[in-house]
Every structure is written in C-alpha cells, then in structure tokens.
Automatic annotation (TrEMBL):
PTM text: Contains at least one intrachain disulfide bond essential for its enzymatic activity.
Enzyme superclass (EC): transferase
EC number: 2.4.1.207
Oxidoreductase in keyword set: no
InterPro entries given in the database record: Beta-glucanase-like, Beta-glucanase/XTH, ConA-like_dom_sf, XET_C, XTH
Name of protein: Xyloglucan endotransglucosylase/hydrolase
PROSITE patterns in UniProt: GH16_2
Function recorded in the entry: Catalyzes xyloglucan endohydrolysis (XEH) and/or endotransglycosylation (XET). Cleaves and religates xyloglucan polymers, an essential constituent of the primary cell wall, and thereby participates in cell wall construction of growing tissues.
Entry GO CC: apoplast
Recorded family membership: Belongs to the glycosyl hydrolase 16 family.
Organism of derivation: Lactuca virosa
Location of this chain's protein in the cell: Secreted, Cell wall; Secreted, Extracellular space, Apoplast
C-alpha cells in the first residue's frame, strides 16, 4: 500500500511540474495590438541587407541565415514614439548561436553613439527553450563599452509551433514590451540620460552571434542545420513619425488616460516575472550599477 501511495505522489508531482511548464498568464484585460492597423511588409519596410536571403509571400516575410549570409530589413521612416509589433514564428530544432531580432535603433543616423530597443530571440540546442531577450541601449558607443540593460525570459509556449505577436510600445515616459498583448517588461523614463529620446527606425534581422548568443557562447551556430529561418507577418508600426507635427499624441498601452499600464496589466506583468523571468540586469552583482542608475533610483 505504501508503495502505491508513493507512486501516486510521484505521478501528481510530475503532472504538476509538466502543467506549470506551460502555464499561461492571466488575461491582461487590454489588447493594444487590436487597436492598431496591420500593414504588409512592402507598405512599411525595405530590405537592408542580404536581399537574396529574404522573400515575401502572402503578406509574410521570410528571412534566413546560412553559412553565406543572414538578412535584415528596415522601416521606410523613423519614429519618435509609437507601437511597433509583428507576429513571428521561429525555427525549430538546433538554432544555437542564431539571433532573430525585431528592434528600434538609430545606429545608422548616430554611428558609435546610438540608441536601441531590442526584442531578440536567442537560439538554443535540442530540447531547450528559446530565450527572449529584451534590451535597452542609450547612446551606446558600439565599441564593447556599450551598456546593456538586459532582461531575459522563457515563454509559456513553443514559439516554433505558431505565430505569436511581439511588440514594443515607446512613449515619452515608458518603454513597454509585450508578448501576445501580455506586458512582460516596463522600462520607465527616470532621466533623459537613461531613456531613448531621439528618433529611431524599426528593424528586423537574423544573424550569427555565436560568440555570445547561447549560454554565453558555449554553443555555436552549426550550419549542418541551415537554413535558419525567421518568419514575420502582421506588421504594425503606428505612432508619431519623425516628420509628424509636434501636436502628434503618443499612443497608449492601457485603457486609462495616463498612457501607462493599468493595475491589471501590472499584476499580469508581475505574474510573468515570477514564472518566466530568467535574468534581470539590475539583480546581477557582477554589473557596475553606477552605470545603470535606474536600477536604484
């Protein structure tokens, strides 16, 4: 009898562990992606590099990496605030060393001294989940002294099975990152020195970052598994462009007038942090936090 009880307990604990591994967050109560019109790739973007590693079909864009090249694209206009999203489906299997990215940047306008806001999918090895890395650079040098503000997450779903919507909302007061309208990170403006204020373009890319992408470079890109493909569709880029009139009002992320997150959205974000946050730069004792004053102010 005792043995049967033991087996039952093991079964219950195993089932609980498996179910928790894909436990979905509560409803955020507000869905920013539904408020903004989608566009096709050709309406808002152009190839930036690797044109032979990029194809558009049925309003979806495929970009891929092989041993000869990766690929990237860029919005046709810069923005000073807005909502920027895309539905993305990632490559399954061995993708170590490969980064699929969707981000804001003004690197071409300010080389060596640029701002950047990243959503990056860090490739992985067989049986291990992708890591979604969010990052914010402010006037980065680009010479190895750039100050990253990384927060890394695992996801409550397999991002290789279906398209999921990933987005950045950039307002004069906040940067908010979303996954399927669930807010996963809020980066508030605490000073002009720690917040991007200059116009940025929207980019996407796939490239080889074997030196650091997977477990700090332990696992490299293996081109026996090429091509590595990132699929994008349902593009959204709405807000105040760099050419908009000064009276242009920034878009919001919540149902309230404040423009920030609602109480319910904050609750859901805390839930995500408790279940799926795997790295926060502010908690890293190896970092020099005099360079990231927003961590303690």
């Amino acid at each position: 009898m005792g043995y049967l009880v033991f087996l039952s307990l093991v079964f219950i604990l195993t089932e609980a562990s498996v179910s928790n591994a894909g436990y979905w967050p509560p409803s955020p109560g507000f869905y920013p992606s539904s408020k903004f019109r989608s566009m096709t790739f050709n309406q808002g973007f152009r190839n930036l590099w690797g044109p032979n590693h990029q194809s558009v079909h049925n309003n979806a864009l495929d970009i891929w990496l092989d041993r000869t090249s990766g690929s990237g694209f860029k919005s046709v206009k810069p923005f000073r605030s807005g909502y920027f999203g895309a539905s993305i489906k990632l490559q399954p299997g061995y993708t170590a060393g490969v980064i699929t990215a969707f981000y804001l940047s003004n690197n071409e306008a300010h080389p060596g001294f640029h701002d950047e806001v990243d959503i990056e999918f860090l490739g992985t090895t067989f049986g291990k989940p992708y890591t979604l890395q969010t990052n914010v650079y402010i006037r980065g040098s680009g010479d190895g002294k750039i100050i990253g503000r990384e927060m890394k997450f695992h996801l409550w779903f397999d991002p290789t099975k279906n398209f999921h919507h990933y987005a950045i909302l950039w307002s004069p007061n906040d940067l908010i990152f979303f996954v399927d309208d669930v807010p996963i990170r809020r980066y508030p403006r605490k000073s002009s020195a720690t917040f991007p204020l200059r116009p940025m373009w929207l980019y996407g890319s796939i490239w080889d970052a074997s030196s650091w992408a997977t477990e700090d470079g332990k696992y490299k890109a293996d081109y026996r598994y090429q091509p590595f493909v990132g699929r994008f569709t349902n593009f959204k880029a709405t807000g105040c462009s760099a050419y908009s009139a000064p009276r242009c009002h920034p878009v919001t992320a919540s149902p309230g007038r404040s423009g920030g997150l609602s109480r319910r959205q904050h609750m859901v974000m805390k839930w995500v942090h408790s279940h799926y946050l795997v790295y926060n730069y502010c908690w890293d004792n190896k970092r020099d936090h005099s360079l990231t004053p927003e961590c303690w102010k």
